[in-house]
Amino acid sequence: MDLKEVFVPIVRQNVSPSISLKELCAGLEEEGVPYRISAESEKLSSSLPISILVKGNQFMVFHEKLPDGQSYLNGTEGQERWGGKNAARLVKGLPLCLE
């Protein structure tokens, strides 16, 4: 039996220095949701339905129930903490923060 760990996978792909992974992770931490950061080539297995891709100067939050390639939330530099917080709120089933 393959037991999956509980964390939000964050995949880095050619990340621009202008985007703050630290702020993205801080948003997740504020809501008490664990995460793991990996490179594009690493495979992370999580039991949570949410994953985050940070590519270039943007991030995308994906949900397993959406079609492949369709993101639930998108953001760019300056919105990282908001994105992490809302990804965590999706995990917890709470309403999203619009600000």
Task: Provide a descriptive summary of the structure in words.
The chain is an alpha/beta fold and 99 residues long. It is 23% helix and 30% strand. It contains 2 helices and 5 strands. The chain has helices at residues 21-30, 80-92; strands at residues 8-15, 35-39, 50-56, 58-63, 73-76. Strands 2-1-3-4-5 form a 5-stranded mixed sheet, with helices on one face. The radius of gyration is 12 Å and the shape is globular. The N and C termini lie far apart (42 Å). The mean pLDDT is 90.
Order of helices and strands, N to C?
EHEEEEH
- What ranges have pLDDT less than 50 throughout 5 or more consecutive residues? none
What percent strand? 25-35%
**Major sheet strand order:** 2-1-3-4-5
Mean pLDDT: 90
Query: How far apart lie the N and C ends?
Result: 42 Å
Shape: globular
* Radius of gyration computed on alpha carbons: 12 Å
Structural class: alpha/beta
Give me some keywords for this one.
single chain, 99 residues, alpha/beta, five-stranded mixed sheet, 2 helices, 5 strands
